[in-house]
Specification:
Blueprint (H helix, E strand, L loop, with lengths): L4 H28 L15 E8 L5 E11 L4 E14 L2 H9 L10 E13 L6 E11 L2 E11 L5 H15 L6 H12 L1 E2 L4 E2 L3 E8 L4 H13 L1 H12 L6 H20 L2 H8 L4 H4 L11
Antiparallel strand pairs: 1-2, 2-3, 3-4, 4-5, 5-6, 6-9, 7-8
């Protein structure tokens, strides 16, 4: 007997929460083992967890999530690992956006359900790369799909770090089809591009959206492996760079690069726009913004 869609939604939501807990534990472990380098004397960072709630226009409960944020740690200057599961009725602007993406029937039944995990890490050490990861499932009565990926955002680039990050992604994607990694890499290169700066915001990664082959289990398994790829792709880079000495010029480079990240997320990021227009907790939606940035 096949799972009902409600069961599938529950499986997806539970997975995003499991992935969140795994990453939070790993990141707190990095804080505990940071015993050398410029920030070793700081207290080991810990995540602060805050429940978020979403309320529909009529005042009814419409889901929520858990915002997990660490600030001022030894390794992470600011990192958030948020999960949410929300539901309700899409407003007219969101309905038009869905219809423009090819989702049928939104004008007759604009209900939706969405669940996902969103992570952004901004580092103390300018040599340690910032990173973003997000995976999600979206449902309407007329369609369902998965989306997300991860991308590396170093302010000081190291070719070997970029190669490792991409290789780990490919290792996890290849079992689902050797065509996937090249396609999702190219998609990330296009998506994480800042047109008004004529440049990418980082060194790329993988990205997909509106992913629905019709086989929910296969698409969910791919989404899980995108999430599983994150720590093997990213954690070794942090371990390698977190104790490296830096200069004032390096820190200045980091702050300027963070400006690119803020511009992209506020102007172009689809998840930021969706979260704000559907009434989710603004602090959770804007968690991705860096603690400090600089424009020159």
């Amino acid at each position: 007997m096949t799972d009902t869609m409600d069961t599938k939604k529950a499986r997806a939501s539970a997975w995003f929460e499991t992935l969140r807990d795994t990453i939070v534990t790993a990141f707190e472990g990095l804080e505990d083992t940071q015993t050398t380098g410029p920030t070793a004397a700081l207290p080991a960072g810990r995540f602060e967890r805050t429940q978020t709630r979403r309320t529909a226009d009529d005042g009814s409960e419409a889901g929520g999530g858990l915002m997990s944020v660490m600030r001022g740690g030894r390794v992470f200057e600011k990192v958030g690992v948020n999960t949410s599961t929300v539901h309700g009725v899409l407003g007219e602007a969101a309905q038009r956006a869905m219809a423009a993406r090819g989702v049928p029937g939104m004008d007759s039944d604009p209900r939706f359900w969405a669940s996902g995990i969103s992570l952004v890490a901004h580092m103390q050490n300018p040599h340690a790369p910032a990173v973003h990861m997000n995976t999600r499932m979206f449902w309407t009565p007329h369609a369902w799909w998965f989306g997300g990926g991860s991308d590396l955002n170093p302010c000081i680039e190291y070719a070997e770090d970029t190669a490792h990050f991409h290789a780990a992604q490919q290792t996890h994607l290849d079992p689902h089809g050797t065509d996937l990694y090249p396609r999702l890499k190219a998609w990330a290169d296009e998506y994480f591009y800042i047109p008004h700066r004529n440049r990418a915001r980082g060194v790329g990664g993988i990205f997909m959206d509106d992913h629905c082959t019709g086989d929910w289990d296969a698409d969910f398994a791919l989404t899980q492996d995108i999430g599983r790829a994150f720590l093997p792709a990213y954690q070794p880079l942090v371990e390698k760079r977190r104790s490296q000495e830096w200069t004032d010029a390096d820190k200045d480079t980091q702050l300027i690069h963070r400006g690119l990240y803020a511009e992209y997320n506020l102007v172009y990021d689809r998840g930021t726009k969706f979260g704000l227009t559907t009434g989710h907790d603004a602090n959770a939606v804007l968690m991705s913004l860096p603690p400090m940035a600089k424009w020159v």
